Every structure is written in C-alpha cells, then in structure tokens.
Amino acid sequence: MPTIFFYGPSLTREKKIELIRGFTKTASEVTGIREQAFVVYLQETDPGQVGVGGELLADRQKK
Amino acid sequence: MPTIFFYGPSLTREKKIELIRGFTKTASEVTGIREQAFVVYLQETDPGQVGVGGELLADRQKK
Amino acid sequence: MPTIFFYGPSLTREKKIELIRGFTKTASEVTGIREQAFVVYLQETDPGQVGVGGELLADRQKK
Amino acid sequence: MPTIFFYGPSLTREKKIELIRGFTKTASEVTGIREQAFVVYLQETDPGQVGVGGELLADRQKK
Amino acid sequence: MPTIFFYGPSLTREKKIELIRGFTKTASEVTGIREQAFVVYLQETDPGQVGVGGELLADRQKK
Amino acid sequence: MPTIFFYGPSLTREKKIELIRGFTKTASEVTGIREQAFVVYLQETDPGQVGVGGELLADRQKK
Questions:
Q1: Are F and E touching by the rule of 3+ CB pairs within 8 Å?
Q2: Cα–Cα dist B59/C4, whole Å
Q3: How far is Cα A52 from Cα B39, in angstroms, rounded to an integer?
Q4: CB contact under 8 A, A53 and E41
C-alpha cells in the first residue's frame, strides 16, 4: 500500500484528478503494484506558509 | 519524544480526544515510554484532496 | 484509506505487530472505517538523529 | 518548489530514475511549474515496518 | 535541495519570515549548502488537532 | 510541543548537534515557546534516493 504526498500549489478539481491519475499510473507501472493499492495526499501549501531560499514564497512571486 | 501523525477524516472533538488517548495509551504500553512524552498530530484530509486507486476519494465515496 | 506514521524507537518484531494492531483497532473503532483500510508506517528514529530540547536524544539518555 | 514524498518498496536504480522522471513530468505538466523546481524523496519502507489492515505487511505478503 | 517542515503554532507574517530566515541561515551554515536550495514548509497546527501526553493541546493550555 | 523535520544530507555528530541547537534556539525565540518543548528529527536522505529537476541527485552531483 504505497503512499504519495504532494506539497504544492492549490489546484482545480480537474487538475487534482489529473495529478492523482498520473502519479498512480506511473507508480503502478514502475513498481508493478496494482493501482488500487496507492493512496495520494495532496497537501496544498499557501505561498504565505512556504520559504524558498530564506524568503517567503509569496514575496518571491511578486518580484 | 515519539510523534504520531494521523492522516484521516474530519472528527468531532470527542472522537479526536478518544483517538489521541487510544494512540497514546497503546504507544506508551508497547514502548514503555511515559505517556507525557507522546505528541499526536491529527491531519484532517478532505476527500477532495485524497486519491485512492487513481481516483479522487470524494468520487469513490459517491459510488 | 487513512494513514498513520509513528516516529519512535526501534522495536522488536512482536512489539511492532502489537503497535500496528493497537493503532489500527483504535483508529477503526473511533472513525468507523474498516480495519483493512488502514496503513501504518513505523519510522524508527535513532537517538543520534533526534533532538529534544536542543540536545541530541542520545546525549540526554546518558544523563 | 513543490515536494513529493513516495513511501513504497525498494527499487533498483533504474526504477528510481523512472519514478522520479515520471512524477516530475506529470507534476510539471499539471501545475505549469518548471521541472527544475521539483524535489522527490523516495522513502523505502521495509515490509517489516509497515502495517496494512492491522497486520505486518511482511506477514501479509507470505499468504 | 534540503527540506524543512515545521509543525507548530500559528504565527504572524513577520514571525514566519523570521523563522524561515533563521532556519535557512542555520541549515546553510551547518551543511555548507547555499541558502537558495532550502525549502521550508510551515505547517500550522491548531491546538484542537494536537495531542500531548494523551490530552488535547487545546485543553492543556486552559489549565 | 512543536516538531521540526529536516530532510537533508548526512552530517557528522558535531554538525547534527549544531543543527539541532540552531533550529531549537531560533524556533524558541520566534514562537516564545520554551526550548524543552521542541523535537527535531534529522532525516538523512541518500543522494541515490532523491530527485531534483527530474534527475537523481546522485547523478546531478557528478556533473
């Protein structure tokens, strides 16, 4: 029962489905484990809660 | 100072307390470490943010 | 498909089974989700890789 | 700078590369973020450290 | 591309920036890796979702 | 009881202590929570288990 966590931006419902399908398909093909066994957690991260290079991502994106 | 993360459904306040007590009691008994040392993080996961078997959990639950 | 992570000490095989059973039973009872849906990851953490109160856990345990 | 964690079985070097490429490509296409920004952590999990349905995965696999 | 996760209380925007800067500076100095390579995720945890010593943190804080 | 996870390179014992001290001091100063309450998990990540920009970190480092 492998598990995938994705820490990234907010996505539309369609994009979430696309991401879950893509990750599960790839992981199932590479590992040989059936798709039903995979769980994917999409952890939306607000740019005001993420730091990149010592700066708030929200501030970097304004530049 | 062991740490437990639970990724699961939304729970009422009473259920949260019950889960925290149960996890802490079990972990303390099994490891022999005093209950005061345990931290539990309940990470509520929205069915619209979780994929199971390549599908959105929110969609599977409708079936 | 809820998921539980446990960051704690090394355990014997018997203790691991006991911990997995206890966590799964508690979580299933509290959430009403069947036991088969739960995944537990035991992440053994070496006292030489953990800090508590600003000190290496390995050093605190010697005191 | 999105981040992906994969908790799953041990893989050969070739399979690891394939998994990292696949995850990164999919995530970049879905989010519109350039591939260079993605980090993937492959967390190999020993079947003797994972519980599924209240049992050790190592024991389930023997059945 | 090292990654830091912080599970802790809600912070003001200024405090978040201070924490991200401090973590990144320390980690860069200790590891010798350039600051630009570090990602920090601030995971705000509600005291109603955290257990300490078998109790809800929200309840401990009232005592 | 805030918790910090660091996913990064292997470090000497001295460097680990330095990192734990630095993270704990910074986090305590910024949050106003006493140092004793902080737990830090150093998760060493092998360059052969990390992907950056779709490539194995181990391969990027050779370039």
A1: yes
A2: 23
A3: 28
A4: no
User: How many structural domains comprise chain D?
Assistant: 1
The ipTM estimated for the assembled molecules is: 0.97
Render pLDDT for C8-44 as a digit per residue (tens, 0 to 9).
999 999 999 999 999 999 999 999 999 999 999 999 9
> Are D2 and A7 a contacting pair at CB < 8 A?
yes
- The residue in chain F having the minimum alpha-carbon distance to the alpha carbon of residue C56 is F17
Residue numbers in D near F55 (CB within 8 A): 17, 20-21
pLDDT in tens, D3-40: 999 999 999 999 999 999 999 999 999 999 999 999 99
Whole-number Å distance between alpha carbons of E35 and E27:
8
Listed in order, strand segments (DSSP E) in B1-63 are 3-8, 39-44, 50-52, 55-56
Q: For residue B14, give the DSSP letter.
A: H
Which residues does E59 contact at the CB level (< 8 Å), separation at least 6? B17
Residues of C whose CB is below 8 A from B8: 2-3, 27, 31, 33
Q: Can you tell me the distance from the alpha carbon of D45 to that of A24, in angstroms, rounded to the nearest whole number? A: 18
Please give the residue range of the domain that contains residue B42. Answer: 3-60
Considering only alpha carbons, which residue of chain F is nearest residue D5?
Answer: F50
| CA-based nearest residue in chain C for residue F4 | C51
Q: A24: how many CB neighbours lie within 10 A of its CB? A: 24
C-alpha distances in angstroms, D24 versus B52, D62, E36, F9? 20, 34, 20, 21
Residues with Cβ within 8 Å of A50's Cβ and at least 6 positions away in sequence, in order, are A56, A57, A58, D1, E39, E40, E41, E42
pLDDT digits (tens, 9 = 90+) for E9-60: 999 999 999 999 999 999 999 999 999 999 999 999 999 999 999 999 999 9
Residue F47: give its domain's CATH number: 3.30.429.10
Residue B3 and residue F39 in contact, taking contact as beta carbons nearer than 8 Å: yes
DSSP E strands in C1-63: the ranges are 3-8, 39-44, 50-52, 55-56
Nearest of A47, A50, A44 to residue A12 by alpha carbon: A44
